[in-house]
Specification:
mainly alpha; two-stranded antiparallel sheet; 2 strands
């Protein structure tokens, strides 16, 4: 019976030993699983962060592109407006009279004023000069 007791205690000893081993294994496994889980979480956050950054970059690029396009359109509109000056949108015998025409035909216009209208160009106010130019055209 002593041998039984001894072997019984031996068994119980090995049982507790295997129990602690399995407990250690379980702890190790849990630790490993936790590390993996944390690593996956980190990767997921990294991906989200990158996606968010890319999205913001895309937004910024779109905005910049839109602003450039607006600027280009505005420039084009202003350019069109520039063609249409103060004398403008009046019909002469040769179509629409533009500010540029006034400067291109300056010498002829001055001669016409002096010969036909007998008026000195320098003595005319701006608005009257434009009115006369319409007549000339």
């Amino acid at each position: 019976s002593e041998s039984e007791d001894y072997s019984g205690s031996e068994n119980s000893g090995s049982d507790s030993e295997s129990e602690s081993e399995s407990e250690d294994g379980r702890k190790r496994r849990k630790r490993r699983e936790r590390r993996k889980r944390e690593e996956r979480e980190r990767e997921r956050r990294k991906r989200e962060k990158r996606r968010k950054r890319e999205k913001e970059d895309e937004k910024r690029k779109k905005k910049r592109r839109r602003e450039k396009e607006e600027k280009r359109k505005k420039k084009r509109r202003d350019k069109e407006k520039g063609k249409v000056g103060a004398v403008t949108n009046s019909w002469g015998k040769y179509g629409i009279i533009r500010e540029i025409d006034m400067w291109n035909k300056r010498p002829e216009f001055t001669a016409w004023l002096a010969e036909i209208k007998q008026v000195n160009l320098e003595s005319l106010p701006n608005w009257e000069e434009k009115k006369m130019f319409k007549q000339y055209m």
